[in-house]
Amino acid sequence: MSVDLLLGLQWGDEGKGKIVDVLTESYDIIARFQGGPNAGHTLEFDGIKHVLHTIPSGIFHSSAINLIGNGVVIDPVIFKKEIENLSPYHIDIFKKLLISKKAHLILPTHRLLDAASEASKGKAKIGSTLKGIGPTYMDKSGRNGIRVGDVLSKKWKERYITLTQKHLKMLDFHNVELEYNLRELEVEFFDALETLKKCQIVDSESYIHKAQDAGKKILAEGAQGSLLDVDFGTYPFVTSSTTTAAGACTGLGVAPNKIKEVFGIFKAYTTRVGSSPFPTELFDEVGAKISKKGHEFGATTGRARRCGWLDLVALKYAIQINGVSQLMMMKGDVLSGFETIKVCKQYRTDSGLIDHFPYDIQSDLITPEYKDIPGWKEDLTQISTEKDLPKNFLDYVDFLEQELKTPIKIVSVGPDRKQTILR
Ligand code: IMP
Beta strand pairing status for 306-308 and 270-272? Predict the structure, then answer.
């Protein structure tokens, strides 16, 4: 059986968690393929909001197996807290959750290095979530990392000490003020590791291959967004993993020809956290209104997200790179009440109008060219079928489908599971 893939098409925070939760009924396995606790996947049902960082978003359903793939980086401390947060819901975590032996561990010193690296960059900082993501992936590609499978052997502590010593030297090199008590951090880390070791730690790629042979339906869940991809994102203001479709192949061991549907999720507008170029950013009361209505605050860091109009140049780029076959538009309800909605169709540059995503999107190099679209006044949050949606909203969706040459199969009109309209 083939694998379907779900990923974000903007700068993260598109609402992937909600849609994975909605789709899980149709799948046997939900598999996270990259990123780590920099992600904050939010799900809401029965009046309760849940935020997951490492655990896949299918965990609340009774039957699906949830798998943390080799491409994910895990902080045992955050992972343990996530498990504790799930305890009121009587989920049999140790039965339903599998972890790849090849997933890398975020050590306490990775988090310290992240903080030191950002501090030493001053104004040029990336705006990292400071969860240790960059340093952990650096150790992975530098062939120094410690994997989940390593902690099952007795010898791994020597490697831990060697790596930590190296990190401490690197911290000295950064030469920034950083207050920490490594001993305390390590007590917490080793304690949390015991919880992680209680989970089923498996050769996840063979688990997936066997599941495919047995005809199981698998949904690969991405984290962050395509414009944060280490290769195709707005480098260097990106995360350190492959957030695009290729990441599902390397992060789970799924062959490219086994991927069938690629679900691309985007918001009806654009948001971004951290420092970095953002062509359609709004600095006026419109941006403030979107931010307030959309509750645009980071689920992991609590930082205010910057808001702007939808950018079709960037969205088309993400659709192409990922081979998106179906789109899902989130937070349409947030745009209710605007007289006019703007959509960026092209960028104006020194050499004229362009409609491709260029190497550099600094605001002094490009100006967005907008098309005005009539807005709608109606509240969408109580609507449950397409036929009840206001005409201007449906015209907006039609316009986007034509521009993007891809069907929009789901529109989401609120955070709850129920506020999801299938088309
Ligand atoms: P890092 O992945 O924590 O190193 O952060 C690198 C950049 O990616 C920063 O600009 C972060 O704000 C951004 N980022 C990382 N994870 C997420 C996410 O899940 N949603 C939105 N932005 C993210």
Answer: antiparallel
